[in-house]
Amino acid sequence: MDRIGVVGGVALQGEIAIAGAKNAALKLMVASLLSDAPLVLENMPSVADVGALTSVLEELGVRVTRDADVPGRMCLHAESITSTTAPYDLVRKMRASVLVFGPLLARCGKAKVSLPGGCAIGTRPVDLHILGLEALGARIHLEEGYLLGEAPGGLKGARIDFPMVSVGATEHVMMAATLAQGTTELHNVAQEPEILDLAECLNAMGARITGAGGPVIRIDGIEGLGAATHRVVPDRIETGTYIMAAAATDGEIELLETNLDHLGAEVCALTKAGVEIAETNRGILAKRANGRLSAVDLETQPFPGFATDLQAQFMALMAMAQGESHIDETIFENRFMHVPELMRMGADIQVHGGSAIVKGVERLHGAPVMATDLRASVCLVLAALAAEGETIVNRVYHLDRGYERLVDKLAACGARIERLAD
Ligand code: EPZ
Questions:
Q1: For a surface tag, which of 55, 76, 81, 89 has the fewest beta carbons within 10 Å of its beta carbon?
Q2: Any ligand 1 atom below 6 A from CB of 308
């Protein structure tokens, strides 16, 4: 298994082009199942999760091609669905594959999809996805670890009030409802920019969706969707991560091809902590305002609140800030796995359930550390970039799932970082 070696202490200087958002790209790929015409996606990130989902879609009969001449361009053509079963071996590699269930039901009237199971950051059930699809008239039951669904007469529009906000359930039910008979109204939905992006792509394919990006989404079902070309929204989590890399190392990085509007709560917290974030005519410039960072309290929330996907990276900053920071993780029950690893680098952190108290130290020190999930891994890379001495981050495959060319992008800004093959 590959590892990453980092020698810390270099102030990063340079520019980084931000990729398309992984968490938008995956759902956009799934949307291709809803139409027998081609869907062309531009600005697709080159990350392992996209490869894993490609295998799932190919299993169902989708033709997936990359354009060798245009980086980031992918064509998905589900002219005919040859199988309505997504097997365990493929789904377990990437949880978002479960989202093929609703589109298969909507288009083919039946689907059999493995339940993805829990993962390192929490149990992550799919009860809200099932609640929404059942409300659209699907009959769903669980058999031997598989979700089995039928909607022989097609799905029917309905009003659905989600008891809690879920990104995946919102996207799943929104996609399925595009082909339902009649109107669907989804209340208490997630408002992440990736949801608006998905709705815009579906509308370009001919769907009739309004309200995405707000708390209520209305979908007027139609018989079939058509062809479209859509550009994936920039990755706000990658953007936030590199803003924090500049801050952690007391460097200065300009981020290109991104959008600051998607980072409201994060910019607020980072500014309070002493990070200067300014719009330039090409993107965003990030650096420390002056001297050491200050401790800031934080609570993760659904968008527009502070993103859980940036909590670990922010904790790496707080570990070296002046003062004591209280960090509450409210989205996932087990998303502090980076804490023991940061402590091996000299951080002073106490965890009580979903809350962490971080007492900033003057300096972190390099150490061998183990990554447990995507964002925990990148938090360790940030800590390593700022630490004294050498850090080896093990289990790099987590990073490959969601960060495109991380080592190259950081090295281009002067980081002493390399990938070490075993
Ligand atoms: C998406 O996961 C993202 N994944 C996650 O990104 C992100 O952390 C999360 O949204 C929150 O922003 C993708 O987009 C592929 P949820 P998702 O449904 O859709 C509970 C990353 O690092 N819940 O909004 O699975 C759930 O357990 C990651 O890129 C139910 O109880 O998140 C969690 O506590 C990891 N029942 C909360 O809701 C359900 O049916 C929010 O989950 C569904 C969710």
A1: 89
A2: yes
Distance CA 297, CA 289 (A): 19
Q: How far is CA 104 from CA 30, 40, 111, 275, in A?
A: 10, 20, 6, 46
Q: Which of 119, 201, 268, 379 is catalytic?
A: 119
Told to judge if 119 belongs to the known catalytic residues of this protein, a careful annotator would answer: yes
Q: Give residue-wise pLDDT tens across range 46-74.
A: 999 999 999 999 999 999 999 889 999 99
The amino acid that residue 371 corresponds to is A
Strand order in the sheet with 110-114: 85-86, 110-114, 146-150, 139-143
Q: Which residue's C-alpha comes closest to atom 41 of ligand 1?
A: 166
Q: Could you tell me if the CB of 128 is within 6 A of ligand 1?
A: yes
State the Cα–Cα distance between residues 320 and 283, nearest whole angstrom: 27
Q: What is the pLDDT of residues 336-348, one digit of tens each?
A: 999 999 999 999 9
Among residues 63, 64, 104, 114, the alpha carbon closest in space to that of 84 is found at: 104
pLDDT digits (tens, 9 = 90+) for 134-152: 999 999 999 999 999 999 8
Q: In what order do the strands lie in the sheet with 63-66?
A: 63-66, 74-77, 38-42, 228-231
Atom number, ligand 1, closest to the C-alpha of residue 127 = 40
Q: Is 270 exposed, middle or buried (0-12, 13-18, 19+ CB in 10 A)?
A: buried
> From ligand 1's centre to the CA of 374, what distance in Å?
14
Phi, psi values for residue 167, rounded to 5°: -65, -55
Expressed in angstroms and rounded, the spacing between residue 276 Cα and the centre of ligand 1 is 30
Amino acid, res. 228: A
Round to whole Å and give the CA distance between 302 and 341.
26
**Whole-angstrom distance, CA of residue 314 vs CA of residue 309:** 10
Q: What is the pTM of this model?
A: 0.98
Give yes or no for a contact between 39 and 75, defined as CB atoms under 8 angstroms apart: yes
Is any ligand 1 atom within 6 A of the Cβ of residue 53?
A: no
What is the rounded distance in angstroms from the CA atom of residue 195 to the CA atom of residue 169? 11
Residue 167 CB less than 6 A away from ligand 1: yes
Is the backbone peptide bond immediately before 304 cis, with ω within 30 degrees of 0? yes
What does the block give as tokens for 32? 């291709």
Whose C-alpha lies nearest to ligand 1, atom 31?
125
